[in-house]
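seq:
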Amino acid sequence: MIDFHCHLDLYPDPQDVLAGVDRRGTYVLAVTTTPKAWRGTNKLVGERKRVRVALGLHPEVVAQRHGEVALLCGLIPEARYVGEIGLDGSPPHRQSLDLQRTVFERILRECSDHGGRILSIHSRGAATEVIDALDRHPHAGVAILHWFSGTKSELARAVKHGCWFSIGPAMLRSARGRDLAAAMPPDRILTETDAPFVREGNQPLMPWQAYDCLGDLEGVLGFEPGTMAPKVQSNLRRLARASSPAAIPRG
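struct:
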């Protein structure tokens, strides 16, 4: 099982979640919302080989935490994964877009300067601007667009750029999400939860529930039942092989 976008440190009891991850052999990318959380989350995760921590500065908090971009850039040499980063053009965060752009561009430049990173990127309400920025920084790394919600034409641009996509159960609950997933290259898809923000009833999804979307994903892609899980696992292995030059240390 693979959860490539999970806010592990924001669960009420992260250690309990990690125990469940260990029991089930789940692979997790624990994204962070601020760079100040990165070292603490690494300490929480410890030496687990199946859990990696991404260095992030979430666009929703840039208005209040933009001063931390210098800290993030200073930590990039130590991090293999960078996320959650990106832009949010939705109404609650539109006023900070100029600041978000400045921060995002700086992070992409820094990633380029250090040989590229694996990036987990937020693009809600700003997919065109995110792809424009990625086009300006072609050596920033491998971009995985988390819970993509742009238009079909924006998706086509992202695919042409070489972006990957992480998809979770919540995305496939809507007809629009299913329609977008159907147009994504199957060999560039990973699974995610975006938990604990995504919930099932009154409870947050757990990392091992990322695969709850596989049946719907197989349906929209026209795959036989049971074929998507090995495909996602193969994708993760290929991503790791393609994106692990010696210059990029393990996070």
